[in-house]
Specification:
The complex is a heterodimer of chains A (110) and B (123).
Chain A: E1 9-12, E2 18-23, E3 35-40, E4 47-50, E5 64-69, E6 72-77, E7 86-93, E8 99-101, E9 105-109
Parallel strand pairs in A: 1-9
Antiparallel strand pairs in A: 2-6, 3-4, 3-7, 5-6, 7-8, 7-9
Chain B: E1 3-7, E2 10-12, E3 18-25, E4 34-39, E5 45-51, E6 58-60, E7 68-73, E8 78-83, E9 92-99, E10 110-113, E11 117-121
Parallel strand pairs in B: 2-11
Antiparallel strand pairs in B: 1-3, 3-8, 4-5, 4-9, 5-6, 7-8, 9-10, 9-11
Classes of the chains: A mainly beta (110), B mainly beta (123).
Amino acid sequence: QSALTQPASVSGSPGQSITISCTGTSSDVGGYNYVSWYQQHPGKAPKLMISEVSNRPSGVSNRFSGSKSGNTASLTISGLQAEDESDYYCSSCTSTYTLVFGTGTKVTVL
Amino acid sequence: EVQLLESGGGLVQPGGSLRLSCAASGFTFSSYAMSWVRQAPGKGLEWVSVISGGGDSTYYADSVKGRFTISRDNSKNTLYLQMNSLRAEDTAVYYCAKEKMAAAQEAYYFDYWGQGTLVTVSS
């Protein structure tokens, strides 16, 4: 149950696009289309941003999109805004009926 | 409106026990699997355990297997986490989280989270 690998930090200027990667194995990310992404502001509970690789829940900005290729999933934030500055975590179900989160990525808006 | 309210956190000595509760409202509690997720101070999220809607299926992270027990009382719309043999590395904010997919037996993704309860294991 090793954590999925994410870059520790990603930054971008307002209006730019950034992409956060999430790398696992064929036993988690690569084997299932149940990759999700969460946004977490300091001191707050996580918020679901993307489910099932690329589905955006109602109320989430269409500036957030998800994709997957092989064992790596990605979250793209387009038109970066100051309010997007936060921590982001990916997650995936696994072949052993557990769930694993990514190591987390701090997004900074320059 | 869906609400999840955790309670039961606090300071406990290494080797001690604690039971967390999560009171749920605003949805048909028995139809959804529920999970516990924790976050150590300044660290990332770690999934801890899941229980199916009927309570007949449970799974645990290796880090807590044999020490923690997840359970639920659907008549009280309440989720529990019994934590035994606590260690310093169990210090964290513990969140309960609702599975988004109805009738799921395992953890996939969560659409609602509680505000969390802090557990501190220290002598």
